């Protein structure tokens, strides 16, 4: 048993010594240049800056559709791509731009709300994009009066 362990240890030791060539000689200069270029490109990210992140529709009558537009600018160094925009409720539908937004360019995200609910409502829209943060949160709110009821709620 001791001989088997000693023999196996000797084989492993010889294998390690034989593989211990100069590792830096295996690195190709072309690969280093490509990796450096890739790493620099990875640092370029879009930045999504909204003019406003919340919209108040004020007092509305139940069932009255509402619509707003959230305008934004790509202040980053790479094209901005919105991959998904979802809302916290099926009564709110975000419609993001389909095409990439170039650096320095502006875009619009349209949001439609069907007027459902009653009293004070707040809905959130999550915008997923290729930014460093990965997502942005927007809000819409309104005071919804029941259809046919006398106006209540905050007065603007």
TrEMBL record:
Give the matching PANTHER family. LIPOPROTEIN-RELATED (PTHR37833), SIGNAL PEPTIDE PROTEIN (PTHR37833:SF1)
What name appears for this protein in its UniProt entry? DUF1573 domain-containing protein
**Keyword Cytoplasm belongs to the record:** no
Q: Does the keyword Signal apply?
A: yes
Give the species.
Maribacter aquimaris
Q: Which Gene3D superfamilies match?
A: Immunoglobulins (2.60.40.10)
Q: A single Pfam family, by name?
A: DUF1573
Q: Which PROSITE patterns match?
A: PROKAR_LIPOPROTEIN
């Amino acid at each position: 048993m001791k001989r088997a362990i000693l023999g196996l240890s000797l084989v492993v030791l010889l294998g390690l010594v034989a593989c211990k060539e100069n590792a830096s000689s295996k690195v190709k200069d072309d690969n280093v240049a490509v990796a450096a270029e890739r790493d620099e490109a990875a640092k370029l990210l879009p930045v999504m800056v909204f003019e406003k992140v919340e919209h108040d529709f004020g007092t509305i009558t139940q069932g009255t559709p509402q619509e707003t537009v959230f305008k934004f600018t790509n202040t980053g160094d790479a094209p901005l791509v919105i991959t998904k925009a979802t809302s916290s409720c099926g009564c709110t539908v975000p419609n993001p731009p389909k095409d990439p937004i170039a650096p320095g360019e502006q875009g619009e995200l349209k949001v439609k709300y069907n007027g459902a609910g009653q009293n004070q409502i707040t809905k959130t829209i999550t915008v997923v994009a290729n930014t460093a943060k990965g997502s942005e949160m927007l809000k819409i709110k309104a005071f919804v009066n029941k259809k046919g009821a006398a106006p209540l709620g905050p007065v603007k």
